[in-house]
Design a protein that fits this description.
34% of the residues lie in helices and 27% in strands. The protein is globular, with a radius of gyration of 21 Å. It is an alpha+beta fold and 326 residues long. Helix 2 crosses helix 3, helix 7 runs antiparallel to helix 10 and helix 7 packs across helix 11. A hairpin with a 3-residue loop joins strand 1 and strand 2. The protein folds into 3 domains: 54 residues, Arc Repressor Mutant, subunit A, CATH 1.10.10; 207 residues, Bira Bifunctional Protein, Domain 2 (BirA Bifunctional Protein, domain 2, 2-Layer Sandwich); 48 residues, SH3 type barrels (Roll), CATH 2.30.30. A 7-stranded mixed beta sheet has the order 3-4-5-9-8-7-6, sandwiched between helices. The termini are far apart. The protein binds biotin. Biotin binds next to helix 6, strand 5, strand 8 and strand 9.
Length: 326
């Protein structure tokens, strides 16, 4: 019996007896009990058991529900949506979207999941992806004019994430070049673009976004940098993962559909207004070398404008990290 069948029956946080659950699912009470035990070990979802009352998930659980997401999306974005695929668990939503791209899946496919077993971050890092706490989403889109016209796209996605959060009354978002989503200096989300196909012609882009919504403390302990989540930022006053995902897709689908024509120039001013490091001394680590200077925003291609002793140097590429200078 998959979790996705049993969990919705307990999602509201109310007690249900073993018999009620067993009847609803057409299985034995022992099968229900076994599955609830597995939930705790496999997903970290704690199910409370009280004699005479039954089982409950204390505080409930905010599961992803396709109808709720689709109903809450803005109409223009809904018109651009192809398939919305919700996995209980997947290795990586980006990896799944890439596999589907290679099988010929078209623009508008959205892959999301309650958990990822091998969530991918930038620079080969792992993206911590516990069950039903955060958002992990990937959008596939096909372009015909090659990779060059897609420069700056990951920065534009950061702007779209900020807009979506603002629409859900989650303010104070800042962006760190090239594509970290921050709140008061702590990482709230990350963006990972991957590409397949012909970089000089028809190519498919997967736009992956991870957003910390309600990160369990034990899972968060595995993150090697300062992080936060939407629950902390809002004191728990947010509309829930389905509404947050709908808001995200409402911004993301039109961005993906229009980017080839609009380019980053369309998004640049808004990015500059969200720039966490504008005018700050920074050190760029390229892995092989370090370069110090003052961050002076980005140009129309999304390249960081680094002011050094020899003048402004544009910095391209996504394999660079940035830290405030000591
Ligand atoms: C970063 O390192 O900041 C980028 C993190 C991107 C994580 C998201 S979660 C959804 C999608 N699937 C993945 O495996 N990675 C991206």
């Amino acid at each position: 019996m998959p979790k996705s069948i049993l969990l919705p029956l307990l999602a509201d946080g109310e007690f249900r007896s073993g018999q009620v659950l067993a009847d609803a699912l057409g299985v034995s009470r022992t099968a229900v009990w076994k599955q609830l035990n597995r939930l705790a070990t496999e997903s970290g979802v704690a199910v409370e058991s009280v004699k005479g009352k039954g089982y409950r998930i204390k505080g409930g659980i905010d599961l992803l529900v396709e109808d709720q997401i689709s109903a809450a999306m803005a109409a223009p974005a809904r018109a651009l949506l192809g398939e919305l695929r919700i996995f209980d668990s997947v290795d990586s939503t980006n990896a799944e979207a890439m596999r589907r791209a290679q099988q010929g899946c078209a623009s508008g496919l959205v892959v999301t999941a309650e958990s990822q077993t091998a969530g991918r971050g930038r620079r080969g890092r792992q993206w911590v992806s516990p069950y039903a706490g955060n958002l992990y989403v990937s959008l596939l889109w096909e372009y015909s004019q090659g990779a060059a016209v897609l420069e700056g796209m990951s920065l534009a996605v950061g702007v779209a994430v900020s807009r979506a959060l603002q629409a859900c009354d989650v303010g104070g978002i800042e962006l760190k070049w090239p594509n970290d989503v921050l709140h008061q200096g702590a990482k709230l989300g990350g963006i990972l673009l991957e590409m397949t196909g012909d970089t000089a012609g028809t190519c498919q882009v997967v736009i992956g976004i991870g957003l910390n919504v309600s990160m369990p403390a034990d899972a968060g302990g595995a993150i090697d940098q300062d992080w936060t989540d939407i629950k902390t930022v809002t004191g728990g006053q947010h509309p829930g993962r389905n509404a947050l995902l709908a808001a995200l897709l409402s911004e993301l689908l039109p961005l993906a559909a229009g980017f080839e024509q609009q380019g980053f120039a369309h998004w640049r001013q808004e990015w500059l207004e969200l720039d966490a490091f504008a005018g700050s001394p920074v050190i760029l680590n390229t892995g092989a070398s370090q370069l110090g200077g003052i961050a002076r925003g980005v140009d129309e291609r999304g390249a960081l404008q680094l002011e050094t002793t020899t003048g402004i140097q544009p910095v391209y590429g996504g394999e660079i990290s940035m830290r405030p200078a000591p």
